[in-house]
Every structure is written in C-alpha cells, then in structure tokens.
Amino acid sequence: MPAKVRKVPVRKCTGCQEMKNKKELLRILRTPEGEILLDATGRKNGRGAYLCPCRECLEKAMRSKGLERSLKVRIPEEAYESLKKEIETFEKR
Questions:
Q1: Which long-range contacts (CB under 8 A, 24 or more apart) does 45-49 make?
Q2: What angle, rounded to 10 degrees, do the helices at 77-92 and 55-64 form?
Q3: Per-residue pLDDT of the chain (93 residues; tens, 9 = 90+)
Q4: What is the reported pLDDT for 3?
Q5: Given CA atoms 8, 11, 15, 17 in this order, what sign does their dihedral have?
Q6: In this predicted structure, what is the pLDDT of residue 89?
Q7: Mapping DSSP to helix (H, G, I), strand (E, B) and coil, where does residue 93 land?
Q8: What pLDDT does 4 receive?
Q9: How many angstroms separate the first and last alpha carbons of the chain?
Q10: Tally of CB atoms within 10 A around 12
Q11: What is the DSSP letter of 15?
Q12: Distance between CA atoms of 15 and 61, rounded to whole angstroms?
C-alpha cells in the first residue's frame, strides 16, 4: 500500500495575489488586542494575512489596501514602517 500523500497548505499573497506554499510566505497578524505584527512561527492567535517576503509585495498591499481588507482593520503608518524593517531582514537572508 503506497504512503499517503499529504496536501501542502497554499495561501494567497495579499500583495501580488499569487497562490504560494504557506511556508514561503510571511504571516502578518492582527492580535485580539488590535496590534499588527509579523508572526514568524505562523501559530500565534489572531487574524492573519500572508505576504511574500519582499518589499514589492508589501508596497502593492499598501497601495491596494489588501492588508487592511484581509485583517479587517485600518493599519497605521507606524505599523507599515515596522513591517518594512522586518521584511528587509528577511530579504537579507
């Protein structure tokens, strides 16, 4: 009997709108307290949205307000700035 084939979880990037492997994307999280942060583990409690780990997708999501729609909250400019800094660290890897 052949081994069971596991389904790979796929999510859509809110910037470029491409479907990608969940592990390839970064999870942006809105905590129950309303805080916006990057969820490196992918397991924290709260509403999540996914982005490619590149600055272009973050900028597209900012222009189209895709992150705000996905997280169902208005995102302040300071949160975008902190996300940009965190994404830059992922790009350098």
A1: 47/71, 47/72, 49/14
A2: 160
A3: 778 888 999 999 999 999 999 999 999 999 999 999 999 888 899 999 999 999 999 999 999 999 999 999 999 999 999 999 988 887 777
A4: 81
A5: positive
A6: 85
A7: coil
A8: 86
A9: 41
A10: 15
A11: T
A12: 4
**Order of strands across the sheet with 36-39?**
36-39, 26-30, 47-51
Which two tokens mark 46?
A: 């709260």
Tokens of 64: 């189209």
List all residues 6 or more positions away from 11 whose beta carbon is below 8 Å from its beta carbon. 19, 20, 22, 25, 50
β-pairing, 47-51 vs 26-30, is antiparallel
The encoded tokens of residue 82 equal: 């902190």
* The pLDDT of residue 20: 96
